[in-house]
Specification:
heterotrimer, A mainly alpha (326), B mainly alpha (289), C alpha/beta (332), A: 326 residues, mainly alpha, 2 domains, B: mainly alpha, MetI-like fold, 0% strand
């Protein structure tokens, strides 16, 4: 197993390198002169030239990329144009909040989506099924930011039940988490339902029933365990939606997280912060994907066995050949 | 000759079969009708909208929904209904153009990767992995930031960020189809590679492409609205996301300014999702029994 | 094979007028239309017919495992040791499944749960029906594996590590684990390689002989029937068209369909110019003809065949044929 983890991490490295290259390329082609942006409109031509030279802006593309990469390896994501602070520090200050919110979103999405999907599949075509399917469809059709505003409108402005902004306690988490994870909940519900429906018709479910197994065990032990694989895939993909959702929705709820930092930076044309944020999000997403792969191997023995030593496999093959009549 | 006619008849009947199954699905029909209405609204926006989208009437600002202004007016006294109607045109244009772009590139790249395999496949797929390591919306945001605000740039950002999805779908289905026996049969009778791709592979991977495209338009609409909402669009144009964004400061007193553009986004995406779901079920050979 | 003697044994299974239908968007599919047969303890009944004749649905009907929706047991009775299974409640029915009646499925590749070890899957059925500790159930699973010819060490492996024949052995082990009184084997060898088929069939047959379980053998292979069955029911389009002892069917087939089945078999002893297949196809079970279901393909059809479905006629004691030709004495 540890071999598999190491292998998987080794695969992650070139991907992350590629990500840095993509981000650097985008930064390179971004319009606007960083030196100009840092110094402001009042700067003289000379000052700008000086700074350009100092920042290495006149070096060739690859020299600059290698410099960027070596900075990155030292944890240096550049300097914020606006505050003059290291971007890495600004991001690290904001990151915990965003991670906390994303984590709550995923827990919420899984805790609601999977049970709802199972219930829908087991009671196919019932009112409950229809209702949850309609809700799920609406859920994937809503833009997160609009749902957030509507929730604020109803629960904060209208009913006065929940705070519209800030992050000072449990109550403050409800609206951001619900609005960000709505589409994740919906997608997971839909996937769970369709995956369960497919599995429920499988022959081995019939075998389990033919054993006289109770319906609950059939559903949760035999069906769910098999249905879980595509569900896990979708849960993994939903990390992307939730991370993106925090970027857009944090500013609505005035949550001082990475998302708000990035959106403020976009508005101020503070590019190092934007690109640094993108890199950190991609990094987090890659790690989450790694975790998802590990969960796969945990759930599915077929995937697991791909990583167990080959000797076992050969053993199994010889055993198969030794098929002895009783 | 007669063979030709037969093939045509079979093709037609396959299409009719899919259509029939689609029509039996009530939700899909609902989605289809909604979609047709939305497209018609986009085409005839100037006929339907009672006011030009930028017509400002300072004597009637912040009006709630009423007879003259079914969706009310905004802070400049502009008719929100007219703006939402014109917004349909903008949103659909962004979504369709960006989708067409990403579908074209994605299909070609994906088909090449799937059909030829080997190093080409490995390079293309690694590149997709890199693109997909960045969450799609974040990718679109950073491309749009690079290119600067504006609807065309938003369109390009959406198109680029959607390419890997298409490439993956097309590659996966090409791989499945490539190993089918009828492709081997075609190879064994000496069909050229181009002919095999055109006549044997493409028709058989069309279904997942169509479904992906339908659902992709919906995602593109949401992406476009989100980019506009973040200020990466064009503030002068009545784009739905931009309208919601501009109306945010009035949420306490004039919620109608936020509600209607958002509803428009939701309805159009919903119709596409309903239709796409129905299409997927109708095209799914597993249900063909 | 002794057929006369076991006739004194008590009835194990009696299926009476079983009707099963599927409701689909294309209309009602009449899969099983008033099927009757019975089985004594230790006896083997062969249920023969082509694909889509309703054999599997009949078997699932007995187990009450017809997928519902779209399937529905419309009417009929299934007596098992005198109790009507169709009247049992869910809990009672579960107590029968796997314990009194168990089933060997057609496709071993998909019949085992891919994410559980084979040992777990065998132990599961033991744990459901017998008050055994986990350790004892596992021990029993190991014994069962050995009985079906698989080394017990392999019980911690997963189905994908086994070949098709080995998987079917595991399925058989599951079916036998609680020593059932009746085994329903649904084409147990169809999905296997020809060389493995004989092994698996021998295994099933030996076990059945050893433990004297009743068996319902579903197959489309008359060779299999000749080897292990004492009674045969020929099924066509949801009807049993001919039913009798193995001698009745093999030496004195009456129904044109049965005769057609034999005509389509290669025979080394007889010199035939060429095999004679049955012309035409089985009717669509969603759209059965009004009269005899075999009428469209029957070489002896008459006008009256299209009027109504013929009743079963007992031509000799215990030998039933559903054909009006036989009623008029023109069966041969």
């Amino acid at each position: 197993m540890s071999k598999f983890i190491i292998k998987r991490i080794l695969v992650m490295i070139p991907v992350l390198l590629g990500v840095t290259f993509v981000i650097f390329t985008m930064m390179y082609f971004t319009d606007g002169n960083p030196a100009q942006l840092i110094l402001g409109d009042m700067a003289t031509e000379e000052q700008i030239h000086e700074l350009e030279e100092e920042m290495g802006l006149n070096d060739p593309f690859f020299t600059r990329y290698l410099n960027y990469l070596s900075d990155l390896l030292h944890g240096d994501l550049g300097t914020s144009y606006v505050t003059g602070q290291p971007v890495a520090k600004e991001i690290m200050d904001r990151l915990p909040v965003t991670v906390r919110i994303s984590f709550c979103c995923m827990i919420f999405a899984v805790a609601v989506g999977i049970p709802a999907g199972i219930l829908s599949a087991v009671k196919q075509y019932s009112i409950l099924d229809n209702l949850s399917m309609v809700l799920a469809l609406v859920g994937i059709s809503l833009p997160n930011f609009w749902l957030a505003l509507m929730l604020v409108l109803v629960f904060s402005v209208g009913l006065g039940l929940l705070p519209p902004s800030g992050l000072y306690g449990f109550k403050y988490y409800i609206l951001p988490v619900v609005s960000i994870s709505a589409s994740a909940v919906a997608t997971i519900t839909r996937m769970t339902r369709s995956s369960m429906l497919e599995v429920i018709r499988a022959d081995y479910i019939r075998t389990a029933r033919a054993k006289g197994q109770s319906e609950n065990v059939v559903i949760f032990r035999h069906a769910l365990l098999n249905a879980l694989i595509p569900i896990i895939t979708v849960v993994g993909l939903q990390f992307a939606t939730t991370l993106s959702g925090t970027v857009v929705n944090e500013q609505i709820f005035a949550i001082p997280g990475l998302g708000k930092l990035m959106v403020d930076a976009i508005k101020a044309r503070n590019y190092p912060v934007v690109q640094g944020g993108v890199f950190v999000l991609a990094f987090i997403f890659s790690i989450l994907n790694l975790v998802i792969d590990l969960i796969y191997a945990f759930v599915d023995p077929r995937i697991r066995s791909q990583y167990v030593r080959k000797k076992n496999k050969r053993q199994a093959e010889t055993d198969n050949r030794k098929e002895v009549p009783a | 000759m007669s063979e030709n006619i037969q093939i045509q008849a079979r093709k037609r009947s396959q299409f009719i079969e899919v259509w029939r199954r689609l029509c039996r699905n009530r939700l899909a029909v609902l989605g289809m009708i909604l979609l047709v209405v939305i497209v018609l609204v986009a085409i005839f926006a100037d006929v339907i909208a009672p006011y030009p989208y930028d017509f400002q009437d300072y004597s009637s600002v912040f009006l709630g929904p009423c007879l003259q202004h079914p969706f009310g007016t905004d802070n400049f006294g502009r008719d929100i209904f007219s703006r939402v109607v014109y917004g349909t045109r903008i949103s659909l244009r962004i979504a369709f153009i960006s989708l067409a772009g990403s579908a074209l590139v994605g299909c070609i790249v994906g088909a090449i990767a799937g059909f030829f395999g080997g190093i080409i496949d490995a390079i293309i797929m690694r590149f997709c992995d890199i693109m997909m390591a960045i969450p799609r919306m974040v990718m679109a945001i950073s491309i749009a930031t690079t290119l600067g605000p504006g609807l065309t740039n938003a369109m390009i950002a959406i198109a680029i960020s959607s390419v890997p999805n298409f490439a993956r779908v097309v590659r996966a289905s090409t791989l499945t189809v490539k190993d089918q026996e009828y492709v081997e049969a075609a190879q064994s009778i000496g069909c050229s590679t181009a002919r095999i791709i055109r006549k044997y592979i493409f028709p058989n991977i069309l279904a997942p492409i169509i479904v992906q495209a339908t659902l992709g338009v919906g995602t593109a609409i949401i992406l476009a609205a989100s980019l506009s909402f973040l200020g990466l669009g064009d503030p002068l144009v009545p784009e739905w996301g931009a309208m919601v964004s501009a109306a945010r400061s009035y949420i306490r007193d004039y919620p109608h300014m936020i509600a209607f553009p958002g509803l428009a986004i939701m309805l159009s995406v919903l119709s596409l999702n309903l239709f796409g779901d129905g299409l997927r079920d109708a095209l799914d050979p597993k249900l063909k029994k | 094979m002794s057929v006369k003697n076991p006739d004194m044994r008590p009835e194990l299974l009696q299926v009476k007028d079983l009707v099963i239908q599927y409701e689909t968007s294309d209309g009602i599919v009449k899969a099983v239309n008033g099927v009757n047969f019975s089985l004594r303890e230790g006896e083997t009944l062969g249920l023969v017919g082509e694909t889509g004749a309703g054999k599997t649905t009949t078997a699932l009907g007995i187990m009450r495992l017809v997928p519902d929706p779209p399937g529905r047991i419309v009417s009929g009775q299934v007596f098992f040791e005198g109790k009507d299974l169709l009247k049992e409640n869910k809990v009672q029915m579960r107590a029968h499944r796997g314990k009194d009646i168990s089933m060997i499925f057609q496709d071993p590749m998909t019949s085992l749960n891919p994410v559980l070890t084979v040992g777990d899957q065998i132990a599961e059925v033991v744990r459901i029906h017998e008050k055994l500790s986990r350790a004892d159930a596992i021990k029993r699973a190991a014994e069962m594996l050995q009985i079906v010819g698989i080394p017990a060490e392999r019980m911690n492996e997963y189905p994908h590590q086994f070949s098709g024949g080995m998987k079917q052995r595991v399925v058989i082990a599951i079916a036998l684990a609680c020593s059932p009184k009746l085994i329903i084997a649904d084409e147990p060898t169809t999905a296997l390689d020809v060389t493995i088929q004989a092994q698996v069939l021998d295994l099933i047959h030996n076990i059945q002989q050893k433990y004297q379980t009743g068996m319902l053998m579903i197959t489309h292979d008359l060779g299999v029937v000749a080897e292990i069955c004492s009674k045969v029911a020929i099924m066509y389009a949801g009807y049993i068209v001919e039913y009798g002892s193995i001698e009745d069917i093999f030496e004195d087939p009456r129904h044109p369909y049965t005769k057609g089945l034999f005509g389509a078999l290669p025979n080394l002893k007889k010199k035939v110019h060429r095999l004679s297949p049955i012309d035409g196809m089985m009717p669509d079970p969603a759209n059965l003809p009004q009269g005899c279901p075999f009428e469209p393909r029957c070489p002896h059809r008459t006008e009256s065949c299209t009027q109504k479905v013929p009743e079963g006629i007992e031509v000799t004691p215990g030998h039933m044929v559903r054909c009006i030709c036989c009623a008029q004495g023109g069966g041969k």
